[in-house]
Amino acid sequence: MDCLRDWPEPVVRVQSLSDSGATTIPDRYVKPPSERASVDPGDMVGIPVVDLAMLTDDVANCEATVTAIADACRHWGFFQAVNHGVSPGLMRRAREVWRGFFHLPMEEKQRYANSPKTYEGYGSRLGIEKAAVLDWGDYFFLHFLPSCLMDHDKWPALPPALRETNDEYGAALTKLCRRLLRALSIGLRLDAACLPVAFDDEGVCMRVNFYPRCPQPELTLGLSAHSDPGGMTVLLVDDHVTGLQVRKNDSWITVQPVPDAFIVNVGDQIQVLSNAAYKSVEHRVMVNAAAERLSMAFFYNPKSDVPLGPLRELVTCDRPALYQAMTFDEYRLYIRKKGPRGKSQVNSLEAA
Ligand code: OGA
Ligand code: NI
Question: Domain Fe2OG dioxygenase spans what residues (predicted)?
Fold first, then answer.
């Protein structure tokens, strides 16, 4: 990973640009017209909402819920989960500590400045290509699991409640993801343990995104179109500020967040393991002139050094393996070098 030693250019915090009060954005953030955010006129339907109240640990006996989850993952790659068992109080506290972090003075945040080697810490770009067009957002990236990668000293020391709250949040979401992964297995008509066994030792990390107010939101994006490289993502967004758009055929659907819900989506690794039964769908983030937006993307990933390909049970004469096996460590180098590029990577894995 030597090529990932450092950023190719001095890092500019988007929050500083926003706070400067400039009325135009630097050219570096101006997207080509075809990539700019738009709200499609037909943007009325929403992604499915799935009630998880009846999803117990005994997922094999939760047929209706499993079917709803599996249908959403087959047709949309996305759903909003309600009654998911994580307390709204914890969700609110987690958002508040992270909002507190991004509102600290810049020199306090700079102590955690990240590099492309591990991406851990305070960052403002994804990808190391010189002169790339950048996204209008800052973020903080950290690990929960495996425990050898979890390091509290790399998490913000301020606000004072952040580390403890973040620990609690990580434990609650890991539990939720374990249950969802078992449900996804049943949804493929496999044993509940099938996907968890393929994941082996889970890798769990989080990217907290901060999208400052933008004076020319129509020219840029907070996060360019991408699919998530990992297993499954559980996203907590601001209840009142929209921004996330999900690709449906040729249009972009703006997600209208349901209060206290999580937005769950399939990542590339589950698309590969399921031999494309479940879809890892492109999404992007619009920014806003009136309001800043915070989101917490919790990534539930497979063990990073075992080669993953389609599950053996899902490969038949009628449906041969669509992907070649690759480790997640190798796989995620692509987005870490090139930045968000739609679905080009998982598409390129398709077996010839
Ligand atoms: C991500 C992501 C969406 C959002 O971090 O991968 O897609 O709404 N975030 O911030
Ligand atoms: Ni994403």
Answer: 202-302
Task: Report CA 269 to chain centroid distance, whole Å.
Answer: 13
Residue 239's CB: how many other CB atoms inside 10 A? 14
Return the structure tokens found at 188. 């493929």
Query: pLDDT digits over 172-204, tens only?
Result: 999 999 999 999 999 999 999 999 999 999 999
User: Which residues does ligand 1 sit against, CB inside 6 Å?
Assistant: 207, 209, 223, 228, 235, 237, 243-244, 283, 285, 295, 297
For ligand 1, atom 8: residue with the closest CA:
244
Q: How far is CA 352 from CA 52, 174, 311, 324, 349, in A?
A: 39, 36, 18, 9, 9
Report the relative pairing of strands 49-51 and 78-82 from DSSP bridges: parallel
Specify which residues 139 forms β-bridges with: 123, 209
Q: Are the CB atoms for 17 and 266 separated by under 8 Å?
A: no
Prediction pTM value? 0.97
- pLDDT for res 43: 65
